[in-house]
Design goal:
The complex is a heterodimer of chains A (about 425) and B (about 270). Chain A has about 425 residues and is mainly alpha-helical. Chain A has helices spanning about 20-60, 90-100, 110-115, 120-130, 150-155, 170-185, 195, 210-240, 245-260, 265-275, 285-310, 315-320, 325-355, 360, 385-390, 395-425, and strands spanning about 70-75, 140-145, 185-190. Chain A has two domains: about 65-190, no CATH class; about 210-425, MetI-like (MetI-like fold, Orthogonal Bundle), CATH 1.10.3720.10. Chain A contains 16 helices and three strands. The relative contact order of chain A is 0.10. Chain B is of the alpha/beta class and about 270 residues long. Chain B has a single domain (about 5-260), classed as Rossmann fold (3-Layer(aba) Sandwich), CATH 3.40.50. In chain B, the strands form two sheets. Chain B has a six-stranded mixed β-sheet, sandwiched between helices. A four-stranded antiparallel β-sheet of chain B has the order 2-1-4-5, covered by helices on one side. Chain B is globular. Classes of the chains: A mainly alpha (about 425), B alpha/beta (about 270). The interface of A and B includes residues 316, 319 and 323 of A.
């Protein structure tokens, strides 16, 4: 009975510093397992990213060059009279120049087959030059025009010459002519600037992203102009001025919920309210921007509130202490210090908006539009919806252009996130 | 006590009461932080508030320039008058009050702007300078008064945050005196500084007494003894004892004061 007071207390023992007890070994093993899982997760993430980029580059890289043929065109005044501009027999003139390069081609019977070698848009290259400088009529000029998609793919190796003729999009005769052009040195494969400078087209060799880039630009501009001031205003009011009560709690919860609403819901809302009720134009980047602004605003509000909260209270006290009013404290001290954080959040919100597809599909920004919008109220596509359209098109040329367009979109996203990271590291202050 | 002539002289040399607090109660929500405090703060005097952590000395200090107004859940009752005027009168604008009652904080907190702009900010928002030349005069005078002019006169455009801790604190004092206040509140101004910087600030406080009524909250009893003429001892939200500084340190009336200054509580 005398020892009861000591019961339960562990017997004191000496801990060795060098000898490993089982408990220490177990703890050590758990550390290693945790580290291993972390490394594995990072490895998987990088592997997936690498796969994505590798596959995009593999299918997309061919779209960054475009096969062209150089032709010496006699601008025949009989076909293209000066007083008829901009109309005229440009197609015939270009075809004549091509036939002149192919001695084996029979002028009359195979005219149509020969014409298939060059893009349907080739005539417009000539037309634009002649309209710009009518004195070219009657002269022989050298022009470089894209070849049609089938021959472009043949030249890039996507269509194999070993495939039986019946299963190929180009026949043996066409290949023979094309080889003559190659032997002549008329075929070249320069960088495909028309991918950026052309708008969409039915013909893959002419289709470019200009319409989509311009559409995305207008939509993002609208989104920024609306979401940035409203978002910051709401955040400043909620963070600095609003009384803390049930109403402000409710608003806060709702803003956080809004940030988590699926984007397609915003698209449906835009369809019902902006298009059907308010009668705004269909497919317009302005409406797209309004819809994206609804989605971006919660992100901006949350980022702004976090940035305002991160400004140390000592700065507020210092300003209040010299007699600044609440409004002066916020606008002259807190807001400038929070600006880098706000801008970072805004850019990330805009980057999200740039990649958003579903709401744009619902308001019709996936229409087939062959010119770039000059105002935000004209019909246009956007980068993600253009990708969506091209991904649906069966031509070989569109398959590689889809990947190329995705790479362009990813470049913009990486660029925007890069700016955000730069701003954060440049203006980050430590107190 | 009557035979201590030196102290009687000191009391006599004390000018009029600058700030008078009567029956001040402060509540943070349901917490009763300050309980019925009466205190008279003299003009051109350094008054020290001492006491253990959480005793309410900083809270009381912040009542004197209505910094507590910015805390939603804080309520102040009782009367605090400055030159006979109730500073909690609804007609009093706290922004104007804070120009007359400057404040220096525990951690040096210069604005992330140039040294010049730090000092010029207060006069600018209160419209004290009409021209750039007026402002230059105010900035130089303030920096001289804070004994930092010679160290920064060649780099007024440099950021205030690039100065050393002690220089930053003196810059903050310059910023506070630039609005031509009558009272300077200092909330543990030396607790984030090294001993040399502390000595400089203490010397400065003694000089500032020529023009201002200074109220300083401090954790260091030695500091209170060195710089102040009057000392108030706070404990658990009560003002336990308020008297001449040498009286408090040599002959405390309350047993709690004695325990604190001899290191038994706090």
């Amino acid at each position: 009975m005398a020892d009861t007071t000591n019961m339960g207390a562990p017997a004191p023992h000496r801990i060795s510093l060098t000898e490993r007890s089982p408990a220490v070994a177990r703890r050590k093993r758990k550390d290693l397992i945790l580290q291993g899982f972390g490394l594995l997760a990072i490895f998987i993430a990088f592997a997936v990213m690498f796969l994505l980029f590798a596959s995009l580059i593999r299918t997309g890289h061919t779209a960054f060059v475009q096969t062209h043929v150089t032709l010496d065109v006699y601008v025949d005044p009989a076909e293209i009279p000066l007083d008829g501009l901009p109309r005229g027999g440009f197609q015939d003139v270009v075809t004549n120049a091509l036939i002149a390069k192919l001695p084996s081609a029979d002028e009359d019977s195979e005219r149509r087959a020969v014409r298939n070698i060059i893009s349907n848009g080739a005539q417009f290259y000539l037309r634009d030059r002649v309209v710009a400088d009518p004195s070219l009529i009657g002269q022989t000029i050298s022009i470089k025009v894209p070849v049609s998609d089938a021959y472009d793919q043949l030249h890039k190796g996507s269509i194999s010459r070993d495939t039986p003729e019946a299963l190929r999009r180009v026949n043996d005769e066409g290949i023979a002519w094309f080889d003559e052009l190659i032997a002549d040195g008329a075929i070249s494969k320069p960088l495909n600037f028309s991918l950026i400078t052309n708008a969409d087209s039915r013909f893959p060799e002419l289709a470019g992203l200009r319409g989509a880039l311009v559409g995305s630009f207008w939509a993002l501009l609208t989104c920024f102009v609306i979401a940035f001031p409203t978002g910051i205003g709401a955040a400043i009011y909620l963070e600095e001025f609003a009384p803390k009560n049930k109403v402000s709690d409710l608003i806060e919860v709702n803003i956080n919920n809004l940030a988590a609403v699926p984007s397609v819901v915003f698209g449906l809302l835009a369809l019902a309210v902006f298009l059907n009720y308010l009668g705004m134009p269909r497919s317009a980047p302005f409406v797209g921007g309004l819809t994206l602004a609804l989605m971006t605003m919660p992100t901006i509000i949350i980022a702004t509130r976090a940035a305002l909260k991160a400004v140390p209270p000592s700065i507020r006290e210092a300003a209040l202490g010299v007699g600044a009013s609440k409004q002066q404290v916020v606008f002259q001290h807190v807001l400038p210090l929070a600006m880098p954080g706000i801008l970072t959040g805004t850019i990330i919100g805009l980057a999200q908006a740039l990649g958003e597809t579903a709401p744009l599909l619902l308001i019709g920004m996936n229409a087939f539009i062959t010119s770039a919008a000059s105002t935000p109220f004209e019909a246009a596509t956007a980068l993600p919806t253009q990708i969506f359209i091209w991904a649906d098109s069966p031509e070989r040329g569109f398959v590689s252009r889809t990947s190329a367009a995705i790479l362009v979109l990813l470049t913009f996203l990486i660029f925007m996130n890069g700016i955000a990271i730069y701003l954060r590291s440049k203006f980050e202050r430590r107190w | 006590m009557m035979d201590d002539l030196r102290r009687i002289e000191r009391t006599a040399e004390m000018n009029d009461t600058k700030i008078s607090a009567k029956g001040v109660q402060v509540f943070y929500g349901d917490t009763h932080a300050i309980k019925d405090v009466d205190v008279q703060i003299g003009d051109k005097t350094v008054t020290a508030f001492i006491g253990p952590s959480g005793c309410g000395k900083s809270t009381f200090l912040r009542c004197l320039n209505r910094m507590n107004d910015t805390i939603d859940i804080c309520r102040v009752q009782g009367s605090i008058t400055m030159d006979g005027q109730d500073i909690y009168d609804p007609r009093v604008d706290p922004v104007q009050l804070r120009a007359k009652v400057g404040m220096v904080f525990q951690k040096p907190n210069p604005f992330p702007k140039s040294i010049y702009d730090n000092v010029a900010y207060g006069p600018k928002i209160h419209g004290l300078a009409q021209t750039k030349a007026d402002m230059d005069v105010i900035v130089e005078a303030s920096l001289r008064r804070a004994a930092i002019w010679n160290e920064v006169k060649d780099r007024l455009d440099a950021p205030g945050t690039g100065l050393s801790g002690g220089q930053q604190q003196r810059l903050c004092i310059a910023r506070a005196v630039a609005t031509a206040p009558e009272v300077l509140l200092m909330d543990e101004p030396c607790s984030a500084l090294d001993p040399i910087a502390t000595a400089q600030i203490e010397e400065l406080i003694d000089e500032l007494r020529q023009q201002f009524s200074v109220v300083i909250v401090t954790h260091s009893m030695q500091q209170a003894a060195r710089v102040s003429q009057k000392t108030a001892f706070f404990h658990l939200g009560n003002l336990v004892e308020f008297n001449d500084t040498d009286q408090i340190f040599t002959n405390p009336q309350d047993p709690r004061t004695e325990s604190y200054i001899t290191g038994r509580i706090g």
